[in-house]
Every structure is written in structure tokens, then in C-alpha cells.
UniProtKB/TrEMBL annotation:
InterPro entries named among the record's database cross-references: HAD-like_sf, HAD_sf, LNS2/PITP, PI_transfer
Superkingdom of the source species: Eukaryota
Domain LNS2/PITP, first and last residues per copy: 1-117
Gene behind this protein: Pitpnm1_0
Coiled-coil blocks: none
SMART domains tied to this protein: LNS2 (SM00775)
Region annotated Disordered, chain positions: 170-208
Protein name: PITM1 protein
Organism of derivation: Psophia crepitans
Pfam (any one): LNS2_PITM1-3
């Protein structure tokens, strides 16, 4: 809306932590797609790690429903496992509808009692939260280097900027995980999952 919202301290580092750990970053907003260039410019200006970006199709009276539908399509069509979700108290219902455990739903800001059993409030901010994530990562030290599933040079697509917005734009899974090819189940770890998500191929508007 013509403003330059301030970035909360540590927010960029938290997103970078997940990317460096090998996870795909997906930014989901209730803003209309007419604001896509401005939003992506803001993400780039403030050095947020690159990832896919999802907007609502035009103006809507129910952005939360569109958010949930988009994330659900990632699970069913692309077989992506969502391991953590961040947002405001309004997003709790979105993540809960996906079956995401309260321990992996992170809400920034002051704790609200009625939601205390539905999420983890980051009352001490992203800097303190990052320290907790790093402690968990150290306890589950990886056996190899992280493998990002989306290139670090793009917000979901090459220039000119197009965006992953619609369920029909999910093209296909790029294959089973190494563990599945070896005949075993995908790895799982207690607490915050450390296993790498399945890679996917994305077909974007304007891309041949």
C-alpha cells in the first residue's frame, strides 16, 4: 500500500536457517496477485531467501480459505510435507486444517491464552527462536550437506517474474526419495523434522 513494513529482527535469519537445512521456502500471502511485483521487490530488498510465492487470485473476502486450499494442493498434488508454518493468529486455523502439529505452528507476537494449546508463540522474537532451531539442528546433526529443492536465485521462477499461484501450475513430482528407492521408508526424526522434502518440478505462467 505504498509503505515499507519493517522487518522483525531475526526473521530473515530464521528463513535462511530452514533453506540452508535443505527445505523449500514457500511464502503464502492473502494479498491479491496485483501486488506481486511490489511484494517480491520487498522480499528481495530485505534479503529474504528465495522461494515460491503464492498470492490470492484477485480480491477475495476469504483469503484464509485460499491459503489453505493452496497448501493442501501442495500436499496432495506435489506430495510435499509441510514441516513448519509461520504467521499470525489468523493463520493458526489454516495450519491446523493441514494437520500440522501445534509444536510446529509458530506465531509471532504476544501470547494469546485461548490459542496457547494450538501453536507456539514466539513471544521473545525470532532471534531467540533461531537459537532454539539451531540447538535442535545440532542435536540432529546431518550426515551430509543440505540439498535445497529450489534454486537460490529465484522467487519461484525466472525473469520476467511469474508466480506459483494456482493448483493447476503444479506439474509433477520429480521422483521418489533416495530412501524410497532403496526400499525403505523416508527418514523421520523426533521434534522438528530433519528429513529432506521431496523435490518437485514447478510449471509457472509464461514458462515453456
Amino acid at each position: 500500500m505504498g509503505s515499507d513494513p519493517k522487518v522483525r529482527a531475526g526473521a530473515v535469519d530464521v528463513v535462511r536457517h530452514w533453506q540452508d537445512s535443505g527445505y523449500m521456502i514457500i511464502y503464502v500471502t492473502g494479498r491479491p496477485d496485483m501486488q506481486k511485483h511490489r511484494v517480491v521487490a520487498w522480499l528481495s530488498q530485505h534479503n529474504f531467501p528465495h522461494g515460491a510465492v503464492s498470492f490470492c487470485d484477485g480480491l477475495t473476502h476469504d483469503p484464509l480459505r485460499q491459503k489453505a486450499a493452496f497448501l493442501q494442493s501442495l500436499r496432495t498434488e506435489a506430495e510435499i510435507t509441510i514441516v513448519a508454518g509461520y504467521g499470525s493468529t489468523k493463520d493458526i486455523s489454516v495450519y491446523s486444517s493441514l494437520g500440522l502439529a501445534p509444536a510446529h505452528i509458530y506465531i509471532v507476537g504476544r501470547a494469546v491464552k485461548k490459542f496457547s494449546n494450538q501453536c507456539q508463540f514466539l513471544s521473545e522474537g525470532y532471534v531467540a527462536h533461531l537459537a532454539q532451531l539451531e540447538a535442535v539442528a545440532l542435536a540432529h546433526s546431518p550426515k551430509g550437506p543440505p540439498r535445497p529443492v529450489l534454486g537460490k536465485g529465484t522467487y519461484g521462477c525466472p525473469a520476467p517474474v511469474d508466480f506459483l499461484r494456482k493448483q493447476s501450475q503444479l506439474l509433477r513430482s520429480r521422483g521418489s526419495s533416495q530412501a524410497e528407492r532403496d526400499g525403505g521408508p523416508p527418514p523421520a526424526a523426533p521434534g522438528l523434522p530433519r528429513a529432506k522434502p521431496r523435490s518437485i518440478s514447478l510449471k509457472l505462467e509464461g514458462e515453456e
